[in-house]
Amino acid sequence: MSEPTQTIEGWYALHDFRSMDWRAWHAADLGVRQEALAEWRELSARLRAYDETRSLTYGAYRIAGHKADLLFVHFRESLEEVLAAKAELQATKLADFMTSPYSYVSIVELSSYLSKPGTDPLEDPRLVARLHPAIPQEMPHICFYPMNKRRVGNDNWYMLPMSERVELMKSHGLTGRSYAGKVTQVITGSVGFDDWEWGVTLYAGDPLQFKKLVYEMRFDEVSARYADFGPFYVGTRATDDEVAAYLQP
Ligand code: 76R
Fold first, then answer.
1. Which of 32, 131, 227, 235 fits a disulfide with 28 by CB distance 3.0 to 4.6 angstroms?
2. Where in the sequence is the domain holding 61, given as residue range(s)?
């Protein structure tokens, strides 16, 4: 058996994708829609206030394409709190007009591939901060997709010796680092939690950088040979006013 990679876990994550039932929404009385939006704004404002105290992370995004209309990103202390995040939205009137086309449950994961031997990662404040990732304010765009490491024939990530995995991840990290300041990544592990092994959440100031980075990584051996990808979602952060304008009661 090859040596499992040591991981450090941080906050739990819920990527809660929602689509509007536009027909039902447009058919509803104006008063009902206004009330639903006002109630949702109250919830959203409360979550934003908690986010400011850094006791949780909350972000709202509009999603391009047909796969979803909105994405609510939650990072929280425990699975119970992630359950609460879903329930809080579900309890609103607005949720009666929404479907859940996709969701993803995972936990912030830092792996030990590139850590310096003999050091305690939990003594590095930068690493500790990454366990509780805030929404990067200067990067309004988001890209989310789940992925696996392949286990097919000779291309089996989980049978590679640790030393080879470290080498491959070094090259991956170098490609990633060349996007410093342009793309911020949050890797969340989801083995045992959801249908893929990791969730990849990327933030950028310029959405084109998602394409550049993901494309460049396809040529990194670790992605070229060992990565399988799920559905991709891309969108833009929305204030509560922007969500309200999008829904236009
Ligand atoms: O955490 C670190 O910054 C150290 C280096 C590093 C690790 C260990 C790193 C850097 N990643 C790590 C782990 Mn990554 N990453 C992805 C994807 O689309 C694709 O081809 C793959 C999806 C992207 C775009 C990306 C970006 N990374 C991982 C893991 C866990 C692997 C395991 O445990 O087997 C996955 C699944 C994964 C996938 N990575 C970076 C980036 C970027 C931009 C960086 C540089 C970050 C920085 O230096 O700030």
1. 32
2. 7-247
Phi, psi of 108 (to 5 degrees): -55, 130
Give domain status of residue 1, yes or no: no
CATH of the domain at 112: 3.30.70.1030
Determine the distance separating the centroid of ligand 1 and the alpha carbon of 175, expressed in angstroms.
9
**Cβ atoms 61, 201 nearer than 8 A:** no
- Cα separation, 8 vs 14, in Å, equals 18
CA torsion sign for 90, 73, 206, 242 is positive
What does the longest C-alpha to C-alpha distance in the chain come to? 64
To the query of whether residue 215 is one of the catalytic residues in this protein, the response is no
Segment 171-201, tens digit of pLDDT: 999 999 999 999 999 999 999 999 999 999 9
Q: Give the nearest ligand 1 atom to 165 CA.
A: 34
Q: Which of 12, 145, 226, 233 is catalytic?
A: 145
- Cβ neighbors of 115 (< 8 A, separation 6 or more) are 121
- Phi/psi at 103 (nearest 5 deg)? -155, 160
Closest CA to 246 of 68, 62, 73: 62
- Does residue 134 fall inside a structural domain? yes
